[in-house]
Amino acid sequence: xxxxxxxxxxxxxxxxxxxxxxxxxxxxxxxxxxxxxxxxxxxxxxxxxxxxxxxxxxxxxxxxxxxxxxxxxxxxxxxxxxxxxxxxxxxxxxxxxxxxxxxxxxxxxxxxxxxxxxxxxxxxxxxxxxxxxxxxxxxxxxxxxxxxxxxxxxxxxxxxxxxxxxxxxxxxxxxxxxxxxxxxxxxxxxxxxxxxxxxxxxxxxxxxxxxxxxxxxxxxxxxxxxxxxxxxxxxxxxxxxxxxxxxxxxxxxxxxxxxxxxxxxxxxxxxxxxxxxxxxxxxxxxxxxxxxxxxxxxxxxxxxxxxxxxxxxxxxxxxxxxxxxxxxxxxxxxxxxxxxxxxxxxxxxxxxxxxxxxxxxxxxxxxxxxxxxxxxx
Length: 377
Fold this sequence. Notes:
By secondary structure, the protein is an alpha+beta fold. The protein folds into 2 domains: about 5-85 and about 110-185, no CATH class; about 215-255 and about 270-370, no CATH class. The protein contains 16 helices and 10 strands. The chain has helices at about 5-20, 35-45, 55-60, 60-65, 90-95, 110-135, 150-155, 205-210, 225-235, 240-245, 255-260, 285-290, 295-300, 310-325, 330-340, 350-360, and strands at about 25-30, 75-85, 100-105, 140-145, 160-165, 170, 180-185, 215, 220, 250. The model has no long low-confidence stretch (mean pLDDT about 95).
């Protein structure tokens, strides 16, 4: 049966209502075809080598550029966003406490992938039931940062926001503290107008605050210098020249979001799964460095932190402890850090040992840190 325009208009509104009931703050619909500017931007980024060791970005480039190959028959993408910022965890204050660990705010609670995927599946089931009532089939596929999809580009095209100078998706009423996800569908739903205006204006706060100068230009991020890449994606030694700039950031970095003026409009989430676990919003570096592998696996079960892996986790904390030793922290804190580092000097991992040796060499060295929002430490 051929569906009418009025049927699809009504279904589109139902989808927005269902999405809201499932905990999404916004849903938008776009065509499958991407604006070529997004493809060109991706190609320039890859050509410049800014993806670092993330080879999958290059090898799966064609899937990103030709999304119809992901879901044959799909004609629309429903983009959705879900806020994840929990109540005030005092991130800026934490960045100025060199003995404490800073983890990106999205990683404090349970892994968002499973929660959002379950909600998306429920939404897909509701759409399928509605399509069945209209005597039409519904072919679909859901994605939560799990496939080669240019998510921010589609979110932009569906009206969820614009891509800011920090390469994040920004929304005038919600800032950028949210996850985005997609539902590919073959239903001929009406398309929402894209967010055509960029509201960053002349502001360069995000570019200026970056601890490692990872932005080569507005809208252009060199992942090889980005703390999120260095602490999560990369399994290699952290470049020596960047270590002192990382401060106490051991898993990701939020500086370019924390400084963004649009985030004064950010809403806190009511999703309890995103609430901090294991006191990760206010915990000492030494406590985390003392986790053995079994403790790490237990405490990061169902957490995005697992992605880094245990050796990278220790590597990251060793760097942060080295920065503590070069900071104005108390001698007691420094001695505890030295003891903790020496306690792992003979560990099996050459990667971890090398970062421990570097850390110990920082004791009472003149601070070379350029640590963004934590620069006063």
